[in-house]
């Protein structure tokens, strides 16, 4: 028991020093930094973040399609409930589509399991948006949502520019990445073997850009219902993808 306690203390101390730049960055912007109970991950919370309450967590992945460790984030912006949109790495989209197809064609199953995450169910629920203004976005990402009109309004503009910039080095081609807007919030998940301050900071900026874009589109939905919506679901939602 004593040996385990000493080992845990050493791991916690080492990781605290390793992530000190992330802690200093989080605290400089008004957030709190907390090590996970096992000392092998961390949590950042900023209830009064400029765009909306922010939660950032790095640790063991909660999704099978993200092996190892992941960075997961949630920004609570309170946008219109019809803001249901997603951008994901194209390679990951194709892999998840294969998994969903196999689930449908399995003779022992009649539907996708209820515990299948939304990012997989949405692949068969929502239409793809294939006319993004940016050629790079069309090439590198899959884009879909409740309607093509809503999805296009969200992804084109500042979010498209941010995705293009991130594609240079932050999100290289084939790197697992999911960005979703649902239940009034914006979520981001990506595989991250080692957390470092520049990458965390850059991904928070990307999340906040997506949140700003969602707020812009949400205002148009709230004001005039500018686009048709398809809010009936084939399945009831399971656990929140941003439940950290």
Could you walk me through the main structural features you see in this protein, from its secondary elements to its overall organization?
The relative contact order is 0.17. The protein has helices at residues 2-18, 20-28, 90-105, 118-125, 135-140, 148-155, 158-166, 197-224, and strands spanning 32-35, 42-46, 53-60, 69-76, 85-89, 141-145, 177-182, 185-191. It has two domains: 1-40; 47-224, no CATH class. An eight-stranded antiparallel sheet has the order 1-2-3-4-8-7-5-6, sandwiched between helices. It is 41% helix and 20% strand. Helix 6 (148-155) crosses helix 8. The longest helix is centred in the C-terminal third of the chain and has 28 residues, at 197-224. The chain is globular.
Short description:
The protein is α+β, with helices and mostly antiparallel strands and 244 residues long. The chain has eight helices and eight strands, in the order H-H-E-E-E-E-E-H-H-H-E-H-H-E-E-H. It starts with a helix and ends in a 20-residue tail after the last helix.
Distance between the termini: 30 Å
Count of helical regions: 8
Q: What would the average pLDDT be, to the nearest integer?
A: 86
Oligomer: single chain
Strand line-up in the sheet with most strands: 1-2-3-4-8-7-5-6
User: How big a fraction of the residues is strand?
Assistant: 15-25%
- Structural class estimated from helices and strands: alpha+beta
Order of helices and strands: HHEEEEEHHHEHHEEH
Percent helix range: 40-55%
Q: What is the radius of gyration computed over CA atoms, rounded to a whole number of angstroms?
A: 19 Å
Main sheet: strands, sense, barrel: 8 strands, antiparallel
Tally of separate domains: 2
Give the low-confidence spans.
229-244
Overall body shape: globular
Number of strands: 8
